[in-house]
């Protein structure tokens, strides 16, 4: 495979990994401290920074997953146009655009003061009850719209895969290479797990926004479980890569053996 295809195909994956790591380097240690002390002790500034980085991670993840889906859709379903659409220069611009939109999507939280400490989850996070209209907007723009785009892209890819395997298309139709299908399958699983992990929390937020009285009726354990289920998703992507992608397994093994030899 040409080098530029490797670069353009993996750019969004690397960007997604950065989004997953954001919660680990700053917010999670503060959350662990809050759990240990049974309250937030880091102060309001750290609370705002922690909430901002958590939001950056979440929105960055879904926007990058959307970028991956569009990239795979163009590569498999519109292969003749792919080289032009996803040149190295264009891909860098797309990744920058993804993060610019991510930051832009987070900024309104400061104006509506929705980043607050929630003792139920020991975290400074988005408060769903601050504004019903804003919560609905967040769920629609940050979850429903991206999920709809990704679903459309992967649905079209699956249709093409089925047609190619059944030879519905003419023989002149480009075949889908095994490694391309494996890469597509890996990112499809990443998308499905993201949707499954984040759907409960978003559904709760949407329900509370539409019917505020439901906020008191929703059990605390359900909200807490949905919250930690959502953020646990950041830990799953590395496992998925290792299970479904031979290259990732090979690199994991090389890194682990290298660390083991270094320690010995």
From TrEMBL:
Q: Where is the G-protein coupled receptors family 1 profile domain?
A: 1-241
Sorted keywords for this record are: Biological rhythms, Cell membrane, Disulfide bond, G-protein coupled receptor, Membrane, Receptor, Transducer, Transmembrane, Transmembrane helix
Major location, coarse class? membrane
Q: Give a yes or no for keyword Lipid biosynthesis in this entry.
A: no
Gene3D superfamilies of this UniProt entry?
A: Rhodopsin 7-helix transmembrane proteins (1.20.1070.10)
Q: Where in the cell is it found?
A: Cell membrane
Among the Pfam families in the record, one is 7tm_1
Q: Which GO terms describe its molecular function?
A: melatonin receptor activity
Q: List cellular component terms (GO).
A: plasma membrane
Membrane topology field: Multi-pass membrane protein
Could you list the residue ranges that cross the membrane?
Answer: 49-70, 91-112, 132-162, 183-201, 221-244
The answer on whether this UniProt entry bears the keyword Transmembrane helix reads: yes
Instruction: Report the InterPro entries cross-referenced here.
Output: GPCR_Rhodpsn, GPCR_Rhodpsn_7TM, Melatonin_rcpt
According to the UniProt entry, the coiled-coil residues are none
Q: Which PANTHER family match?
A: B2 BRADYKININ RECEPTOR/ANGIOTENSIN II RECEPTOR (PTHR24228), MELATONIN RECEPTOR TYPE 1A-LIKE (PTHR24228:SF49)
Name the family: Belongs to the G-protein coupled receptor 1 family.
What is this protein's function?
Answer: High affinity receptor for melatonin. The activity of this receptor is mediated by pertussis toxin sensitive G proteins that inhibits adenylate cyclase activity.
Protein's recorded name: G-protein coupled receptors family 1 profile domain-containing protein
Q: Which organism is it from?
A: Danionella cerebrum
Task: Provide the organism lineage as a comma list.
Answer: Eukaryota, Metazoa, Chordata, Craniata, Vertebrata
């Amino acid at each position: 495979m040409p080098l530029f295809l490797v670069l353009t195909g993996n750019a969004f994956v690397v960007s997604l990994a950065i989004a997953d790591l954001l919660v680990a380097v700053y917010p999670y240690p503060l959350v662990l401290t809050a759990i240990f002390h049974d309250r937030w002790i880091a102060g309001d500034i750290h609370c705002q920074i922690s909430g901002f980085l958590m939001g950056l991670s979440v929105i960055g993840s879904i926007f990058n997953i959307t970028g991956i889906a569009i990239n795979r859709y163009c590569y498999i379903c519109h292969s003749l146009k792919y080289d032009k659409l996803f040149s190295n220069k264009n891909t860098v611009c797309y990744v920058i655009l993804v993060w610019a939109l991510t930051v832009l999507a987070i900024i309104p939280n400061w104006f509506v003061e929705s980043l607050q400490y929630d003792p139920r989850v020991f975290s400074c996070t988005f408060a769903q009850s601050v504004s019903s209209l804003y919560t609905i907007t967040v769920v629609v723009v940050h979850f429903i719209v991206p999920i709809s785009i990704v679903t459309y892209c992967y649905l079209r890819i699956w249709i093409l895969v089925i047609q190619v395997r059944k030879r519905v298309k003419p023989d002149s139709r480009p075949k889908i290479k095994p490694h391309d299908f494996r890469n597509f399958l890996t990112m499809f699983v990443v998308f499905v797990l993201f949707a499954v992990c984040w759907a409960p929390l978003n559904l709760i937020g949407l329900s509370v926004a539409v019917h505020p009285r439901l906020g008191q009726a929703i059990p605390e354990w359900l909200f807490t479980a949905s919250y930690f289920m959502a953020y646990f998703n950041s830990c799953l992507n590395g496992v998925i890569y290792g299970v479904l992608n031979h290259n990732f397994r090979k690199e994991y093994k090389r890194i682990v053996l290298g660390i083991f030899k270094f320690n010995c």
